[in-house]
Amino acid sequence: MIHLAYDGSINGDWVAWYAVNLARHDPDHHLRVIYVNTDEIRADEVRDKAELLKRECADVGVEMSLDVVASSGSGADRIFHDLKAHVPATPETLLVCGARLKPGGSGYLTATVSAKLLSDKSFSVMAVRVAQPGLLGAPRRFLVPVAGDLEGYLTAVEILKRFAPDIERIQLLRVMMIKRQLFRRLLNNQAQSLREKGWASLKGLSVELANAIGLDHWKVDANVKVSDDWAQEVIIDANRHKSHLVLMEASWRDLSAPFLYGNPIEVVLRDTPCDVAIYRGV
């Protein structure tokens, strides 16, 4: 089932469209909206907005329910625990949440409830930063960075299945990382060797992914790059392929990084011109 962590804001409304579209193609056709009442927005206002969302869900064949949860305290830690207590920890659960609308001095994701949910791994989580509200949560062109992790790949497949009927193109990207000092002295034959290693890890993956989500094979393509900065390569390819959504797995190392401005997740969220969804599976 698709669950939505909703905060009643305009940004929350944009993120909700992603949850609706995921639920539209989910076997349960049900969207469960969870609002932790922190008194920042009155609960009756949230209920009024939820009624509008419920009608929009009904128009696309989705049943929606709203749970208003009393907050056990203020702050991201308490909201995280309140949400976690009301979301079933099952492999079938996917919780959709949002990144910050504006980074301020804290970044888009760092120290948010969404970051804590991504780090927890009790259930699958997808945190969305919406840069193009006009898409209404229905992207058609995807950029999917591939890190070679089977667990992450399987979670991406399950998410892409729920977008599949509307997908026009999926571009897989494998970035072969090398330390900056070595990258500056990299010889052509060494770069070629790394590319071949990257292509070997992608062997057959485009066809396999197309088969898994029910797409024509020509709709899935792949590319391998050698770089000392994978975040910049993601941003470059998102521009080059005119992507609507970058669907990217979050590693524990990046989520727990103590620094902000050099964090590659924050770099992608800040500089990518399209919507970005950061996910982690169970």
Polypeptide structure, described:
- By secondary structure, the protein is α/β, with parallel strands linked by helices.
- The protein contains 11 helices and 10 strands.
Low-confidence stretches are: none
- Beginning-to-end CA distance, first to last residue: 14 Å
- Roughly how many Å is the radius of gyration? 19 Å
Q: Label the structural class.
A: alpha/beta
- Widest β-sheet, arrangement of strands: 3-2-1-4-5-10-9-6-7-8
Question: How do the helices and strands line up, and which of them pair or pack?
Answer:
Elements: E1 2-5, H1 10-24, E2 30-37, H2 43-59, E3 63-70, H3 76-85, E4 94-98, H4 113-120, E5 124-129, E6 141-145, H5 150-161, E7 169-177, H6 180-183, H7 188-202, H8 205-213, E8 220-227, H9 230-240, E9 245-249, H10 252-255, H11 264-271, E10 275-280
Parallel strand pairs: 1-2, 1-4, 2-3, 4-5, 6-7, 6-9, 7-8, 9-10
Antiparallel strand pairs: 5-10
